[in-house]
């Protein structure tokens, strides 16, 4: 924990109404400034107690406070440093260690996730039993989406029409295995907009899940492997369609700062979100009408961590016949937050229920999100409330319009 970053906080309280856990509980130690106070206590010599670790664990890492802070406090850096410190010095109880071991030995590994897919239906039926064994196991079973079929992507997708750029594409772990249609749509959209898309085989996790949970060594391993993968593919720009992954990859330089050679290699590869890239590139393909009313959901690691809000809205609004509605209280996290809805299922469920009500109030036919965790979280909350809404990625909506097909 960097004492200089801690001192930047003047405890003004502007962060309070934007913090999901403070909104839920009204507890000062579960607000950003309260957690920064605990960080200072630790740097002053107070050991990390179970209660202190609990307050840090309860943070979603949504970065809404970073957007709201008038003093420019780098809470994103602070909470990642703090979580790494918690993992180094705090001894968790055996059941919690076991659950975390299961999650981090499964989710960052696409091949292992693939083996789970045939049993998702059974897991859904067993969710009540698994929840009694451990709430996190029940949450995993309830959240997992059913995948109808695997979609294989070629190593290279040629540009349609004049080639405007050559880009790499991250396939991801959760995105690639649970939402393969999003990756397929992303590749088609990029190609239709004149990009040659390089999709290196054998991609793994980018490290986002690990770095957001304080597992720095694992995150660095995944980061170095990702860098090597795209270096070998010969690309210098990588397009990412998952908000959490894009946010982490943009911070590889800081993650690998202890190795200047790797930090330099990380900075030599530019990471861009899909909406960010398409807005920068400008439209080339014809948009066909798509008579739909959609609600756009700001994924926290896209809006707050990357500052990308206008670009996806502009891309969607440019589609003829498409009406974009705003979700009330959009700045408040849906409760997904990477692995948060697994490790903190009760708080995540409360936030998911709040978000589901806000989405339902829009009356939209489709909810559009740019993060697989948000998609699973909100779909689950909508089903729990007895309603349903189709959830699609920005890439899927653009793909339907560019190809002139129904969404």
What do you see in this structure?
- The protein has helices at 3-7, 20-25, 32-43, 50-57, 64-68, 75-89, 94-104, 110-116, 120-125, 127-133, 135-143, 174-178, 180-192, 208-211, 216-233, 243-249, 252-255, 260-267, 274-281, 300-303, 310-317, 340-343, 345-361, 372-384, 394-403; strands spanning 156-157, 165-169, 195-198, 237-240, 270-273, 292-296, 322-326, 366-369, 390-393.
- The model has no long low-confidence stretch (mean pLDDT 91).
- It is of the alpha/beta class and 407 residues long.
- Helix content is 53%, strand content 9%.
- Helix 10 (127-133) runs antiparallel to helix 11, helix 13 crosses helix 25 and helix 23 (345-361) crosses helix 24.
- It contains 25 helices and nine strands.
Strand order of the largest sheet: 1-3-2-4-5
Helical amount among residues, as a percent range?
40-55%
- Structural category is alpha/beta
Gyration radius (Cα, Å) is 21 Å
The largest sheet is: 5 strands, mixed
Oligomer: single chain
Number of helices: 25
What general form does the structure show? globular
- How much beta, percentage-wise? 5-15%
Q: Which parts are unreliable, with pLDDT below 50 for 5 consecutive residues or more?
A: none
Tell how many strands the DSSP assignment holds. 9
Terminal-residue CA separation: 46 Å
**pLDDT averaged residue by residue:** 91
């Amino acid at each position: 924990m960097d004492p200089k970053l801690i001192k930047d906080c003047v405890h003004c309280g502007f962060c309070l109404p934007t913090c999901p856990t403070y909104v839920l509980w009204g507890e000062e130690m579960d607000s950003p400034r309260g957690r920064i106070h605990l960080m200072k206590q630790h740097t002053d010599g107070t050991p990390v107690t179970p209660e202190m670790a609990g307050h840090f664990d309860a943070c979603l890492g949504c970065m809404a406070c970073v957007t709201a802070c008038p003093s420019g406090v780098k809470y994103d850096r602070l909470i990642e440093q703090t979580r790494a410190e918690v993992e180094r010095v705090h001894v968790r109880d055996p059941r919690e260690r076991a659950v975390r071991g299961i999650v981090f030995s499964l989710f960052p590994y696409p091949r292992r996730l693939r083996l789970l897919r045939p049993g998702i239906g059974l897991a859904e039926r067993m969710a009540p039993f698994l929840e009694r064994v451990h709430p996190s196991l029940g949450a995993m079973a309830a959240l997992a989406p059913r995948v109808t079929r695997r979609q294989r992507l070629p190593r290279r997708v040629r540009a349609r029409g004049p080639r405007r750029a050559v880009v790499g594409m991250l396939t991801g772990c959760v995105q690639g295995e649970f939402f393969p249609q999003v990756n397929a749509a992303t590749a088609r959209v990029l190609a239709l907009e004149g990009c040659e898309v390089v999709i290196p085989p054998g991609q793994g996790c980018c490290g986002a899940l690990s770095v957001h949970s304080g597992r720095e060594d694992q995150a660095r391993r995944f980061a170095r492997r990702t860098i090597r993968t795209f270096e070998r593919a010969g690309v210098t720009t990588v397009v990412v369609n998952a908000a959490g992954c894009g946010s982490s990859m943009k911070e590889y330089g800081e993650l690998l700062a202890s190795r200047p050679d790797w930090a330099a290699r990380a900075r030599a590869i530019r990471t861009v979100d899909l909406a960010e890239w398409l807005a920068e590139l400008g439209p080339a393909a014809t948009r066909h009408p798509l008579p739909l009313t959609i609600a756009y959901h700001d994924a926290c690691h896209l809006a707050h961590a990357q500052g990308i809000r206008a670009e996806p809205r502009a891309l969607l609004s440019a589609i003829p016949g498409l009406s974009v509605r705003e979700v009330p209280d959009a700045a408040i996290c849906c409760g997904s937050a990477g692995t948060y809805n697994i490790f903190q299922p009760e708080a995540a469920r409360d936030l998911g229920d709040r978000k589901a009500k806000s989405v339902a109030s829009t009356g939209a036919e489709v909810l559009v999100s740019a993060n697989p965790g948000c998609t699973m979280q909100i779909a689950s909350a909508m089903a729990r409330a007895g309603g349903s809404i189709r959830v699609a990625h920005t890439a899927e909506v653009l793909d339907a319009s560019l190809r002139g097909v129904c969404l």
